[in-house]
Design brief:
mainly alpha; 12 helices; 264 residues; 0% strand; MetI-like fold
């Protein structure tokens, strides 16, 4: 067996180990130290998670839809902002950059508490739109930062050469800038989606219990409601997040494979 294969197996094992206790706990029963497996194993938790009244599937689709909308807005705002911060000479540029990236260091709940009253006046509480807007605060800085790094590492001579050859702004962006941005943006997209998917406090505050996402469903069980159901929900959430990452990774690989095939 090759060394690289051994390393991959070890990494996979390390990644999987934290989920083993959750998997065991999800099959219910009383689990006290030093017993290895719970007493009275059953499927009660999984039946509860996937029962029609649990709304797990609808919460999953809503969580993904919110994360998708949040990421699209982040890209629409983040790419121009990163371009301006890296290519333009702006007044108070350091201050602007600090303000845009501040949510990385400031807890999202602290920022949301300040805009909750405004959302109440605008009628955005208890709505999906309000939750989408509030998820922008903790997720957008990562997209901006990823785009900034991509712009900073890009050779501007290629863009200048395309301009001299008569390429329009849209052509330069699509054929020269975008291919260089995609790897960095993919990292930003993954972070944006995962951060949006995992938001509980801000979703509960703005959604007021009317916008039901996956964290709204499973966090109360983890906080003492029912550990077995909480463990099952944890595995469902982890599976959704892992599938999302693998899908984006596969999309990135397919994109570069298509470009390589087109160039050959």
């Amino acid at each position: 067996m090759r060394r690289s294969t051994v390393y991959l197996l070890l990494i996979g094992l390390i990644f999987a180990l934290p989920f083993v206790p959750a998997l065991i706990a999800s099959f219910g029963g009383v689990w006290r130290f030093p017993t290895i497996i719970p007493d009275g194993i059953n499927l009660r938790a999984w039946e509860s998670v996937f029962s029609p009244s649990a709304r797990t599937l609808s919460a999953t689709f809503l969580s993904l839809w919110i994360a998708f909308c949040v990421t699209i807005i982040n890209l629409m705002v983040g790419i121009p902002a990163a371009y301006a911060l890296t290519r333009k000479k702006l007044r108070f540029q350091s201050v602007i950059e600090a303000v845009l990236l501040a949510p990385i260091f400031v807890p999202a709940l602290a920022a949301v508490m300040g805009i909750h009253l405004t959302f109440l006046r605008l009628g955005l509480t208890e709505t999906v739109l309000g939750v989408i807007l509030v998820h922008l605060a903790p997720s957008m800085p990562y997209v901006i930062r990823a785009a900034m790094i991509s712009f900073q590492t890009m050779n501007e001579e290629a863009e200048d050469a395309a301009k001299m050859l008569g390429a329009t702004k849209s052509q330069r962006f699509y054929h020269v800038i975008l291919p260089h941005l995609i790897p960095g943006l993919t990292a930003g997209i993954i972070l944006s989606m995962l951060i949006s998917l995992s938001q509980y406090s801000v979703t509960l505050l703005i959604g007021a219990g009317q916008v039901i996402t996956l964290p709204i469903l499973f966090v109360p069980f983890l906080n003492g409601g029912d550990p077995a159901i909480g463990a099952a929900y944890t595995l469902v959430f982890s599976a959704v997040a892992l599938a999302l990452v693998l899908l984006l990774d596969g999309g990135l690989r397919s994109y570069y494979a298509s470009r390589k095939g087109g160039l050959s």
